[in-house]
Structure formats: C-alpha cells, structure tokens
C-alpha cells in the first residue's frame, strides 16, 4: 500500500465515523508521532514483502536482529518480575533503569528517558524539531524512518550521499541545508555498518545553526565497541543520543530503548502523550534491559561472536570475488553489480534464507545481517547455489 493510499484509507475511516474534516488536524496532533510512525514507518523488520516472508525462512538475516535472545541476567530479571505484574511499579523499576544508564553512560538522571524501542523517539524528534521552514538533513543510504516521517509532515528533506569511505559527509550535510531544524546521524550507520568519527560529529555541532538539534542514532554501537557520543548529550543542549535494545541485546520483540538529552528536549518530545510512552513501560522489558545494560563482559563476548561469524561470511564472499563494502557492525553490504538486489533477495528466498533490503541509491547492493556462525555458514552455502 502506498503512503498516499494509507492516508486516504485512514481519512475515509475517520470521516466515515462522523469526524468532521476540520477535526482531522486536531486528531493528528493528539496522536502526534505515534500516528506518524505507525503510518509511514514500516516496521524495522519489514523488508518490503507483505506478508513479511521472514518468519517462514530458516535463516533470518534480513532485519538486523540479534541471532540470540536476551543476555542471561536480563532473561532472569524479566522472569522474576512477572509475579509482581499486578503493580504499575512494584518498586521503582523505571528509576532503576535510568540509574543503570547513568552508571554506564555518565549522564545525569534527568537526561535519560526510556522508550519502547527507538522508532518512536526517532519519529518524534522529527515532529518536535522540524517544521515546514526548518527541514531534516539525513544521509543516503541510511535508516529511512526519519526521512519518511519528515515527508509525511511535509518537512523539507535533504539526503546527502555518504563519503567515499561510506561515512556521513558532515560538511555536505550542513551545506545541503544550513538552516535545518534536525540533522540525523546514524553511527554505525544502517545499512553500511560504518562509523562516523566523533571529530566529524563535533564539527557538525560547531557549524550547524545553534538552535538546530543533532540526533545521533547509536542503535548498533555495542557491535562496534567504539567510544560513543553520550558525553555530547551530557554537555550540550542541542544533542539527542538514541539507543535501542533491539540489536546486540536481543530484545527487538520486547521493545526497549532510551534517549539521552537535555530535559527540555525530553519534555518537548513527550508533549503529545503526557509522557505515557516513556513513563509506562512493560516491567519485563524494563527489568531485562536494566540487567543487560550493565553486563559488560557478556556484551563484549557477544560482539566477539558476531565478529567471528562476520569473518566467516566476509572471507567466503571475498574468495568468491564479490565486492563487499567495509563494515564495523552486524551487517554488511554486497554489491552484486550485474544483478538487482531485489532479484538476489528473491533468489535467496528459494534457499529459505531471508537477506536484507536494498536502498534506491544503490539498487544492486544488498544488506545482509550477521547471524550466528552456523547461520553465516548456511548463508555461504546458499550463496554458492544462487551465485554461480
Ligand atoms: C538505525 C536504527 N535506528 C532505529 C531502529 C529502530 O529500532 P527499534 O524501534 O526496534 O528500536 C532501527 C531498527 O532497525 C535502526 O536500524
């Protein structure tokens, strides 16, 4: 269904239920970012097929999920708290979570807001900091949700190609719209897995309009194990750093994430729902996230497993003479050059392997998620059948 068709269907539904056309703007304002995200932000796992073909595939390496479930201490904490689920907050689980973030990231209590995943705050950042006169600047290719939300809102969007090293072209981003309301940097970037140096991020901060906000999406940072941008969220008022538990923590279906930013930005992003999205989170998800975030040795071990599994795939792809772009996260991009990525995705489906999508700027390039070592071996075997 196209975005226009979705809008028309929802509009017809509201009008059919007796709402007047003049009510629509008010309704949209109440639901705010939630409506935006639900309408235009296809779920992170959807690679374009309807219904989603991935659940039927034996090897699911299309959605940048983790190959394994939550870390053991997280699973235990989630299981423990279920018996107390009759209370909204049996103790102060939200506070405990925020304290864990403070300890790990070095940011003050009032700079942290937990959220059920990072898709919603990503859309909300666009709703909160952009307008028809203050646009969004994003990269190409990058995670698409911010751009889609902006288009929905009729906010001007500039998509700036990555540099030759596949990192964000921060100078190009400021030049593309020197008066934007929001600049979006995804590091490691989805889909390339590449890291934008903190020095480049600081350059962008020094050169953007002082009242514009920089959103730094670090969904994959634990897979890279490099210094993060949390210190910028603590030190400045114009930075939002965003995290999710959907990736290395293996909690995509449990919906947990958080933002780190100045309290005024948190208040602004929450103004659509009185803070419900961040204030009332499922207890098992909160407890699991708190216990996982502080399990540093287990996080490092998972990163090492990913690197070893990625090595298996990359060695094989190179031996087969394929062009694989550099990566520092749990995904890699293969340029098939002579075949559209969509056709290769379909070919892999015949082998019960669900690989990732492609981006319009690179139609012959597929994104593949790093799974377990066994999944990577199965991917290599499937490759040898479909790429002869
Ligand atoms: C870069 C990036 N940001 C945000 C998200 C949103 O994920 P979630 O809503 O599960 O936290 C994703 C999901 O794939 C992502 O790749």
From TrEMBL:
Superkingdom of the organism of origin: Bacteria
Top-level taxonomy: Bacteria, Pseudomonadati, Pseudomonadota, Alphaproteobacteria, Sphingomonadales
Protein name, UniProt field: Pyridoxal phosphate-dependent aminotransferase
UniProtKB keywords: Aminotransferase, Pyridoxal phosphate, Transferase
Annotated pathway: Amino-acid biosynthesis
Family that this chain belongs to: Belongs to the class-II pyridoxal-phosphate-dependent aminotransferase family. Histidinol-phosphate aminotransferase subfamily.
GO-annotated molecular function: transaminase activity
Residue ranges of domain Aminotransferase class I/classII large in the record: 84-383
InterPro entries on file: Aminotransferase_I/II_large (IPR004839), HistidinolP_aminotransfase (IPR050106), PyrdxlP-dep_Trfase (IPR015424), PyrdxlP-dep_Trfase_major (IPR015421), PyrdxlP-dep_Trfase_small (IPR015422), TAT_signal (IPR006311)
Keyword Transferase on entry: yes
């Amino acid at each position: 269904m196209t975005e226009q068709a979705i809008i028309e269907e929802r509009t017809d539904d509201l009008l059919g239920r007796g709402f007047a056309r003049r009510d629509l703007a008010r309704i949209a304002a109440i639901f705010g970012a939630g409506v935006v995200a639900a309408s235009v932000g296809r779920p992170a796992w959807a690679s374009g097929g309807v219904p989603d073909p991935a659940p039927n595939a034996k090897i699911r390496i299309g959605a940048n999920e983790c190959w394994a479930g939550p870390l053991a201490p997280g699973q235990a904490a989630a299981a423990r708290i279920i018996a107390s689920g009759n209370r909204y907050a049996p103790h102060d689980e939200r506070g405990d979570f925020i304290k864990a973030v403070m300890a790990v990231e070095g940011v003050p209590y009032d700079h942290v807001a937990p959220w059920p995943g990072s898709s919603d705050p990503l859309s909300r950042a666009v709703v909160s900091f952009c307008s028809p006169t203050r646009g969004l600047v994003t990269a190409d290719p990058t995670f698409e949700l911010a751009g889609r939300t902006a288009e929905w809102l009729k906010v001007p969007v500039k998509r700036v190609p990555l540099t030759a090293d596949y990192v964000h072209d921060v100078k190009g981003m400021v030049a593309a719209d020197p008066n934007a309301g929001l600049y979006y940097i995804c590091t490691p970037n989805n889909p390339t897995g590449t890291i934008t140096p903190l020095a480049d991020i600081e350059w962008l901060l020094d050169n953007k309009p002082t009242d514009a906000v920089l959103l730094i999406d670090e969904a994959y940072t634990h897979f890279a194990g490099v210094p993060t941008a949390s210190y910028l969220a603590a030190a400045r008022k114009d930075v939002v750093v965003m995290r999710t538990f959907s990736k290395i923590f293996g909690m995509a279906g449990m919906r947990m994430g958080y933002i780190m930013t100045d309290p005024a930005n948190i208040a602004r992003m929450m103004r659509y729902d009185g803070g419900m999205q961040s204030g009332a989170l499922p207890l098992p998800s909160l407890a699991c996230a708190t216990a996982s975030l502080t399990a540093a040795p287990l996080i490092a071990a998972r990163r090492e497993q990913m690197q070893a599994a990625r090595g298996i795939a990359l060695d094989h792809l190179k031996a087969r003479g394929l062009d694989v772009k550099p990566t520092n996260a749990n995904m890699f991009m293969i340029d098939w050059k002579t075949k559209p990525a969509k056709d290769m995705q379909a070919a892999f489906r015949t082998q019960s392997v669900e690989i990732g999508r492609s981006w319009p700027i690179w139609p012959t390039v597929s994104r593949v998620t790093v799974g377990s070592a066994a999944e990577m071996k199965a991917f290599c075997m499937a490759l040898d059948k479909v790429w002869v």
